[in-house]
Amino acid sequence: MNMRDSLPIIEHLLPFLDYCEIEKGLSNNTQKNYKQYLLLFTRWLEKTGNSKLKPHELTAKHVWDYRLYLARTYKSPTGEYLGKKSQNYYLIALRALLNYLAEQDIESLPSSKVNLAKQKSEEAISFLEVPDVEKMLQIPDLKTPGGLRDRAIMELFFSSGMRISELLSLNVDQLSFLNDKSTSRTYELSIVGKGKHIRTIFISPRAAEWLRQYLKARRDVYKPLFINFRSKDEDNNRLSPRSVQSMISRCAMLAGISKKVTPHTLRHSYATDLLSHGADLRSVQELLGHKNVATTQIYTHVTNKRLRDIHEKFHGGSDLKNK
After folding, report:
1. Is the same domain home to 106 and 140?
2. Looking at residue 209, what DSSP letter applies?
3. Taking a C-beta distance cutoff of 8 angstroms, is the pair 203, 159 a contact?
4. 282 partner at 20 to 30 Å CA-CA among 5, 220, 259, 301?
5. Per-residue pLDDT tens digits for 68-114
């Protein structure tokens, strides 16, 4: 037996995170998420008297009980039960840990035994129509630097389709091209996306102008593009994901939008708008930075409608009826 087979599952967590960084080269954000999701699993093991459970002792019954815990017992810090999509994040992290154990030749339950919660198709994606996005853009108070920042953030989200981690990692010096005061130019910017892949995003003339106004209102020389104006820590004033999520949620509520709106909702809205105006799926894959086109195929709510419209326009069957 491999000597590491005798270690409890809990003691494999830190080596797994090191492996994610060194071997897999995963982003800090992904590592942070895996750590968060797996810490809940280790706490559940402790709570159920399984803190000494070894990888080869983990059974499908344990996984089922953990799934029940995620679905029926655990509540998020805001006091809400996890939706199926959120449950799956925790289960995907557990799968990744089991895959790691298998790669290390440590006997364990196969990751294929961890089934994900089934999502209804309408739960898979949430997006806004352009008029609703426009309503949200009118909410920030443009008389304040914070309001200009919030408007610039939402404009940049909808112009570029960036992930929140990508947007918040931007620095002021990356946007020096905004000194070109052209009002009709779409700017290109290379960013380091998910999985440390470099991709190009596009900033519309409109979004560029809001970024200029925001930067003009800044009275500092801080490095981050988007800062927390209330922070007193000069070395750590980059705006946090939670702050952006709260801002977007508040703007949606004040705009009279009843559904839950997140930064990812704006990313979905960006992709939906592109497809509805005729962009092909492969191009949208590139613009979103999806490694696999299968990931982009969640936007079938748009592509299916376009196919129906094309069928009705070019093959409606009316000629046959009239003959």
Report:
1. no
2. H
3. yes
4. 259
5. 999 999 988 778 888 888 898 899 999 999 999 999 999 999 998 99
Q: Is 1 or 33 the better-scoring residue by pLDDT?
A: 33
Last residue of a domain, one of 60, 93, 117: 117
* Tally of structural domains, the chain: 2
Q: Yes or no: say if 90 and 84 are a contact pair by the CB < 8 Å rule.
A: no
Inside any domain, residue 36: yes
Residues 84 and 155 in one domain: no
Q: Is 145 in the same domain as 276?
A: yes
Range of the domain at 94: 3-117
In a domain, 78, yes or no: yes
Residues catalogued as catalytic: 163, 194, 264, 267, 290, 299
Residue 103 to residue 92: CA distance in whole angstroms = 16
Confidence band for 122, pLDDT divided at 50, 70 and 90: very low
pTM over 0.85: no
CATH code at 8? 1.10.150.130
**How many CB atoms sit inside 10 A of residue 172's CB?**
17
**Please, is 149 exposed, middle or buried when counting C-beta atoms within 10 Å of its C-beta (0-12, 13-18, 19+)?**
buried
Tell me what the pLDDT averaged over the chain comes to: 85
CA-to-CA distance for 61 and 244, rounded, in angstroms? 39
DSSP state of 227: B
Angle, vertex CA 197, rays to CA 205 and CA 151, nearest 5? 30
Question: Do 55 and 96 fall into the same domain?
Answer: yes
- DSSP 8-state assignment for residue 117: P
Whether residue 97 contacts residue 55, with contact meaning beta carbons closer than 8 Å, is answered with no
Report the alpha-carbon distance of residue 158 to residue 96 in Å, rounded.
32
322 belongs to a structural domain: no
Which residues, 6 or more positions from 193, have their beta carbon under 8 angstroms from its beta carbon? Answer: 163, 166, 199, 289
Are both 231 and 283 inside the same structural domain?
yes
Cα distance between residue 117 and residue 130, in whole Å: 31
